[in-house]
Protein 1
Amino acid sequence: MARVFGSAKLVGAALLLGSLLLGGCSQVEPVPEPSAKKSVNLDSSELQRILTQFTSSEDNPKVLSDQKLRASIPLAQQWLESAKIKPSKCGVTFAQPVSGQLGTATLGAVELKDSYLMVAIFHNPDVLKKQWSAMNDLFNECSRYSVATDGKSRAYHLAAQQLNSDAEHDQSYVVTSSDGTTSQQQFVVHSVDANVLIGIQQPVTQTQTAEQIESATGIINNLLRELQHAGQVSATAPSGNN
């Protein structure tokens, strides 16, 4: 998680994308059944264009391309390998290399004023389903855990929230972290629809949570429609000249 982890921005975004399925540390839904929905087919330039247009009304959005995100993956993986997680079984959420989690997906992210919006379009929807459902059994053990790195330790608590978007599956939770002196709260959303995974992370206070859930729901619904429309057009568009 970018700001929680305190990593550099690009590394943080890669960590976020690589740990979008950290929902194993929150209450998640049952294993998804096979979806009848069509997969979205977009390349990196198309995804970047959509994200740029989608966030054009925001204050100074910074779109992070697939290439930029991938360039930061080795540093993100290095950070994960140096972290000590307790209980150790919660380290399972980080066990698969980030490159492995994201190797079969087209990536995109937008850094906004105080938040991140992230998209991963998996080439094979079954890969996403397996990664999503692999985290289902960890809630009881990992709703509370700690991460130590660079001689510093933070304790985490994840509280599930109710969010229901147009996506097939949603996770939303408030992450509270503390180093014993100061604390932070992040509102995190992961939504899966066919082969598309959308993530949102932003700071939160207790009085803002309901408003943020409503806002995040709208963002996911609107972005999902944009991706589905563009992806289906791209998939059916003729390639090359006759």
Protein 2
Amino acid sequence: MKKFIFILLTVLAAVACRKVSLEDRIGQIAKYSTKNPDTYLENLQRHEAEKRIDYLTLTLAKELKAEDIWSLESAGGSSLVAEFPGKSKKQTQFSLLTASLEDPEACAVVLGALKTLKDLKIKPKETIRALFYNPVVDTAGLNGLSTVYMELYESGELVTFELEVSSRDTLPVHTFRIEEKPAFAEKIVEVIPPYLAPLGEFRFERGKYPNKEWPVKASVYRYQLDPADIAKESAVVAAFAYLVN
């Protein structure tokens, strides 16, 4: 009897430790999005851009349990950063998930993506920093995104990639623009789309690299969301960030 119990426990432990495949992870994310409607957009739309930081701060701290939250001031206004640790022990290396404070749909999608990863207990390899930035350009030609990136760069921290989420870009909806070294961009366009298939059809296009007009000097992936389905778009962003990370 003892031997049987030992074997049973061993089998259960092996099953529990089995690695979850990427396909399974994306399937979990897709299923989650169908059962969890967006709860953020309406609240974000109630406030002007400069007042959204209060709601974002409260949500990131209380509901999403960010490990650290801080704001940075620029002549154009305040920007907000929230940190969610990954598996890597490299404390100076992280990925950025960004949205303009003047784009409530994009902010809602970023919150939804973070909630998806949290609720499904999916921890990416690298630490994710969510950045909600003030897009207003000051007299020095800097906006909130520029200010935050300069602060991080001067601190010796490395941005491995930025995923910029928008509902107001010039791209068609459901489009990713990959601003990356040609060899890596080619691989991303080849490898990522099949994994995202459970979430729909997406267009991938190559952007210029390096993009000297963009303040973040790293690999930049832009996504143009469909504001008509925030919950599904949150799943798309969560899945893409997880796959690339």
Protein 3
Amino acid sequence: MKERALNGAIIRGFAAVCIFAGVIIFQTGCGSRKVDLDKAVSVEFGGLDGQGQCTWDIDYDYLAEQCSGKGKSPIDELAFELLADEIDGTAAPLDGLSNGDTVRINLTYDKDLFKKYDVVLTGGKNLEFKVSGLTEATEVDPFDPMVFDVESGEGIYIEYTGTSPELSVQIRNTLPPDNILSQVAYSVTSGNSGHVKKGDQVEITAALPYQLTEQGYVLTSEVKEVTCQKAAAYLTSLDEIDEDTWNKIKAECDDYKTAEIDNPSDYDHYVQVTGENISFYNSTVTSDFKYVKAYFLTLKDGLSNTFSSRTHNCLYITYTVDVENAPTVVRGQQFADDACGCFVVKDLYMDADGNVIFDTGMIDSETVLNRSEEELVNSRVKKQVDEYVLTETELGWS
């Protein structure tokens, strides 16, 4: 990196010349002015050992003073400015330096131009400067497995909020102030917030504050990928429903049956015929209740329920029941005594510890009956297969 401040340097140089010579124009004399360029080059080293930088410069005040010596031709300010602009150079290497390295500088200039003003330049070629004074680095591992991505105790926690596939990632640092990692800034640099799913790779970036880099601290690495594992997730398969959860679901369905189906005087029921829901009178009597099948719908990959009414999954528990006192003909269509209904469980999920979560708020009973299970499945379940994956199983419940 070469720095020039021609205007200020020239003015200062020529101010010094005025004091020395008493005039702005340098007087002539016998002989040429000889200037050693080696003495005009200065270097500075800074930064950490192994990551150091070099800055270098040409001292134009020094050149102006040297050019004020006796010569055959006077040099005014504009002429010196022209000459100074002709001095250029290269230096390498300028960064990634370690103590003991060598930086080489070579200056270039037009000798003939300088000779017109009786200036003979020497040196400035193959200058070597040994790197020194760089701060010794103190390495810090920001992803030390003893404290990074821990599950207990003091450390850096990677936490997932929400439910897969709509997780958000947050980083919590509980290390005490005397631990240097407590000052490291961690951030999530990949994985859209609110759209991370279990099994995704999440990129974590670490950065040191400026004051620590000034003190010589350096990170051994800056980026690490972690796998989202310990997080809640919506169920995607019937196989994920364990026996205990099935028993809880059945118990809740039995309660609905007792309250709404075995006591028809308290609830109106409806039969769906040609798209219309026709009310059964509350004097309708039902009998011979039987559970039939479980149909499970899970949202297809790539689809989301964000800004929509979609559920992540939906479990239909179907049953058949004999209906008495129902009209045999509804809207001109025959209605058989045996009808089919269902209970609906929405958004079953598994917590971060692998436990399937089901509560009473997830289940609902539908008072709309269909004339057959086939009609029910076609009208309510299979019509969703464009967005959902459908699986089914026999229940075997009594």
